Amino acid sequence: MASAAEQLAASMNLGLLSKATELKKRIWFTLGALLVYRVGTYIPVPGVDASVMGEMLAQHGGGILGMFDMFSGGALGRMTVFALNIMPYISASIIIQLMTAAIPSLETLKKEGESGRKKLNQYTRYLTVLIAMVQSYGIAIGLEGMRGSFGAAVIDPGPFFIISSVVTLVGGTMFLMWLGEQITARGIGNGTSLIIFAGIVANVPHALATLLELGRTGALSPIFILIFLVIAVAVVAFIVFMERAQRRIVIQYPKRQVGQRMFGGDSTHMPLKINTSGVIPPIFASSILLVPATIAGFSGGAGGSGILQTIGAALAHGEPLYMVTYAAMIIFFSYFYTAVVFNPEETADNLKKYGGFVPGIRPGRSTADYFDHILTRLTTVGALYLCVVCLLPEVLISKYGVPFYFGGTSLMIIVSVTMDTVTQIQSHLLAHQYEGLIKKARVKGRGR
């Protein structure tokens, strides 16, 4: 069925797309919303000299501030109203998801269906406001102490500046959260993912221009640039292959008789992705590793030295300790997050409740152990895949001086969001074509 649907989607042409009026409206709405987001990344926070923040970010761009600036499309470096981007909402969603697995009351809400999901979403919004307030307050306090070659970062420091900055940055995050929900409901794709996607992709032209300029000036040889571009394409193709790869477990449902008729007896499959955890492990790992480097960078700028400087130097990009620790943390978070989002015992109980079973495996505990065994092997392959994708750009950037903008996390986000959006567009096209076939069948039936 899946292959037939893929062939049907591949056979659709632009003429069919032009007839899908609702799909066109959704696409235009998505593009308009992303345009609003990009305009907001150039509206500055009142009372801040953005040049000082940009200079500070250039000096300490290898830390966690550089990662947040990359996800925000440069909004943090320009110190605009969208400087926090939608990252507080992402953090709140992950925290609520982790707490759902640890707190029984939240787990009960999760099982209540639509009403429970709405309550969890409301808790996520409250936590988003709290995280955004803490982060914006920290940024405001940090800005008051910043001085660059152009002078102080804050024109008129004081309580009024702190309050206005917190309100502005929190308001920008809440607007982006609302905008993401509107894109999800009225546009194409997941709104939150598309906002992060737009922020990352916004700097692609500049990154490619920098790479080509180094080739023109002779800093990098044209052969090396060509090989690098080939490797980049190969990595993207590898990510696409691994993100689509899955293990399909056959699920059989027994036949049952209702009156004089027989029902059931069907078989389906349960798809288990190789990379169940997605991009969460690299984000967690890089965020934790960048904290010591960021603290060491700022303290080093003040002329400090000591254990923080030693740790910061050992955990710098491209250092052996950084590579080993990064890989170990990716593997750990891959297993940890997979265990949170997929519960073999709960899945086995649900199958048993509805009469489903895996051929050759007894329902109940044996099925749960079977799922756990398969998921462990899949997670091992997925964790190694994440390590390869995330460490390869680090080697190219640190050892060969390639000034490429993307790391493994960014590439995975771009590829995953693109694949998800294309899949949703194909689903809308299929639904539109099926509706057309149904209308034609009705017209023919009336004609007869």
Notes on the protein architecture:
This protein is mainly α and 448 residues long. Strands 1-2 form a two-stranded antiparallel ribbon. A two-stranded antiparallel sheet has the order 3-6. Strand 1 and strand 2 form a beta hairpin. Helix 11 packs across helix 19. The two termini are 31 Å apart. The N terminus is likely disordered.
Essential attributes:
disordered N terminus; 448 residues; 73% helix; 6 strands; 19 helices; two-stranded antiparallel sheet; two-stranded antiparallel ribbon; mainly alpha
Strand order of the largest sheet: 1-2
Structural class: mainly alpha
What's the average pLDDT? Answer: 79
How would you characterize the largest beta sheet?
2 strands, antiparallel
CA(first)-CA(last) distance: 31 Å
Alpha-carbon Rg, integer: 25 Å
Order of helices and strands: HHHHHHHHHEEHHHHEEEEHHHHHH
Specify the helix fraction band: over 70%
Number of strands: 6
Number of helices: 19
Q: Would you identify the regions where 5 or more consecutive residues have pLDDT less than 50?
A: 1-15
The geometry reads as: globular
Note the beta-strand portion. Answer: 5-15%
What is shown here, in short?
This protein is mainly alpha-helical. Helices cover 73% and strands 6% of the residues.
Give me the secondary-structure topology.
Elements: H1 2-10, H2 14-19, H3 21-40, H4 50-59, H5 64-71, H6 75-78, H7 87-102, H8 104-110, H9 114-144, E1 147-148, E2 151-152, H10 159-186, H11 191-201, H12 204-217, H13 222-244, E3 246-252, E4 255-258, E5 261-264, E6 267-273, H14 280-301, H15 307-314, H16 320-341, H17 344-353, H18 365-400, H19 408-447
Antiparallel strand pairs: 1-2, 3-6, 4-5
